[in-house]
Design brief:
603 residues; alpha+beta; Penicillin binding protein transpeptidase fold; five-stranded antiparallel beta sheet; three-stranded antiparallel beta sheet
Length: 603
């Protein structure tokens, strides 16, 4: 084995290995002090240290159970002393490196080297050795092929610093190794839904601990539907092959059940094993800008604040003053202005200026709090956000925004996404599952329906998307919203019925821009259309149920007032209102207010 691998392991695990006799009391005191005073796990400036020697860890990994007790700890100490008296330090070190877990099926350094770098351990570089040595404290969390590869890199930097501090390498060697690109070559093993598996494993480790998950013989039943997983993966792969010419290298998606929050399928990239495009990174849990796919939150908040779908908003050149900054002057995607438009038309066509005007009147902090109540976890610093938040100026995670759209689909009731049905230990005991948050009517049912009605209104959005776009699913009323960031780094589609939610994304992991041709009706939406069409192909026609508190009203298109045939020159249009918010007035020949028995798309 290369000497720098040995040194990296000792620097991070047991720097006094060659001088102690199996137990290191000074090391225990030092590690305890550092963990209590200086460290706050991996997200801060340092990582936790263990007080056990390599010899103790070898005993724990090979000779004893995972039970935590004073008796077990005493046995560990006695066995460590016996091993030290029986074997040489080199043999103990060899035993340790051949037994320690580096995550997944990578047990032992040779297996780890092949798993992550596709090479023998004897050929590992200093940079690669430091990364692997740093993983052993929490191999699932710190896996470079897991959900948080940046944590693996951060831990590698810490190991290199410890090597310098203990005199194993020079500062110059550390600097060179820290800047060395790490080229991962993961094995293409037969693993269904690898991003989902890694995400579930991380959740299990967080809940039950690394040792129980990796060695406890757990039987885990998840929400994954392999048939739907295959549909999602195939749809992404087929569309990505067409999009390569448009400078698009990656795609991702989710399928969930809005009524329960269950994840039925998860594809974090188009190919988990595509190391060149960081395929192991799970885009469904990564922070990305959502573009216009965030707008329904603003409009739901507006409806909750008293606006109605027929409220008129002026789509005209507008600038907003900002404290300590130049005025903010949003533009529409088509670089045009559309004059007075209804709230329905503004959302359906995704016009930017009306959305910004609404947020300006509501207040940014109100939208942030509303988003947080719906499970958005990334809006954690209100000082960072301004009016651009409603146009996608704040990063989100797909799994969070999928739960938001699921709330609209589920009549305003929130379910956090979840993936576990049951966890049973090797003795047959059913373990307590991690808490999954649910909330009743975060959004009033009538307002959730109004949003669903707008997002399912093909005629209302035809001005921007055309009458025959990929946002339509034949014979089904499906609500859908797209989003594209200004810099063309992210392209989204979120769409749903009462039973299925499908979220899709295309872009590039390295944040290079896509071709300008990629838009709301290209890129992510064909993937979404393919998946949703297959989900609904054997289902009866879907419509959103109209709440009893909602009325369908005939309006005059020119005035948006109650329709009167003798004063309105055009046929009536219809709009949905919460009882008590409909336009006032009447006329003898008015079609009047209708409380429908079934839902129809607004004309």
């Amino acid at each position: 084995l290369p000497s720098h691998l040995i040194k990296a392991t000792l620097a991070i695990e047991d720097k006094n290995f060659f001088t102690h006799h199996g137990l290191d009391f000074v090391g225990i005191i030092r590690a305890t002090y550092k963990n209590l005073v200086n460290c706050r796990f991996f997200t801060q400036t340092c990582s936790p240290e263990g007080g056990s020697t390599l010899t103790q860890q070898l005993v724990k990994n090979t000779l004893l159970s995972s039970q935590k007790s004073l008796d077990r700890k005493l046995k560990e100490a006695i066995l460590a002393l016996q091993i030290e008296n029986t074997y040489t330090k080199e043999q103990i070190l060899e035993f340790y490196l051949n037994e320690v877990s580096y995550g997944g099926t990578a047990h032992g350094i040779e297996s780890a080297s092949q798993t992550y770098f596709g090479k023998s351990a004897k050929n590992l570089t200093l940079a690669e050795s430091a990364l692997l040595a740093g993983m052993t404290i929490a191999p699932t969390t710190l896996s470079p092929l897991g959900s948080h590869p940046y944590l693996a890199k951060k831990r590698q930097q810490y190991v290199l610093s410890q090597m310098v501090e203990n005199g194993f390498i020079t500062q110059e060697e550390k600097t060179k190794a820290a800047s060395e690109p790490l080229v991962f070559k993961p094995k293409n093993i037969a693993l269904a839904a690898p991003h989902f598996v890694m995400w579930v494993k991380e959740l299990l480790v967080k809940t039950y601990g690394e040792e129980l998950v990796t060695k406890g013989g757990l039987t885990v039943t998840t929400t994954l539907d392999l048939n739907l997983q295959q549909i999602l993966e195939k749809s992404i792969s087929q569309e990505l092959s067409k999009l390569q010419k448009l400078k698009v290298s990656n795609g991702a998606g989710l399928i969930t059940n809005p009524k329960t929050g269950e994840i039925l399928a998860m594809a974090g990239s188009h190919n988990y094993y595509d190391a060149g495009n960081d395929g192991q990174v799970n885009i469904t849990t990564a922070k990305r800008q959502p573009g216009s796919s965030i707008k329904p939150l603003t409009y739901a908040l507006a409806l909750m604040s008293g606006l109605t779908p027929n409220t008129i908003i002026e789509d005209s050149p507008t600038c907003f003053n900002q404290v300590g900054a130049t005025p903010y002057c949003p533009k529409n995607y088509d670089n045009k202005f559309h004059g007075p438009v209804t709230l329905r038309s503004a959302l359906a066509n995704s016009y930017n200026i009306p959305a910004t005007k609404i947020l300006n009147s509501l207040g940014v902090n109100k939208l942030i709090k509303f988003g947080q109540s719906l499970g958005i976890t990334t809006w954690d610093d209100p000082s960072r956000y301004g009016l651009a938040l409603t146009l996608g100026g704040g990063e989100i995670r797909m799994i969070d925004l999928a739960a938001v759209y699921g709330t609209f689909a589920n009549k305003g009731n929130y379910h956090a996404l979840n993936s576990l049905i049951s966890v049973v230990d090797h003795q047959g005991n059913t373990l307590k599952l991690p808490h999954v948050e649910t909330k009743k009517e975060v959004i009033p049912e009538s307002i959730a329906f109004q949003i669903n009605s707008i997002l399912a209104d093909n005629q209302a959005r035809s001005a921007a998307f055309g009458a025959n776009s990929t946002l339509n699913i034949k014979n089904h009323q499906v609500a859908v919203k797209t989003g594209t960031t200004n810099n063309l780094r992210d392209n989204w589609t979120f769409g749903y019925t009462s039973d299925y939610l499908v979220a899709t994304w295309v872009g590039n992991n390295d944040n290079t821009p896509m071709s300008h041709v990629v838009s709301g009706v290209t890129g992510a939406s064909p993937i979404w259309n393919s998946v949703m069409t297959q989900l609904l192909k054997d289902s009866p026609p879907h419509t959103f149920a109209i709440p009893q508190t909602t009325r369908k009203i005939a309006l005059c298109k020119e005035t948006m007032e109650i329709y009167c045939a003798n004063t309105c020159s055009s046929p009536p249009i219809y709009e949905y209102f919460i009882k008590g918010t409909e336009p006032k007035g009447s006329c003898q020949d008015s079609i009047g207010a209708i409380l429908p028995q079934s839902a129809t798309t607004t004309n």
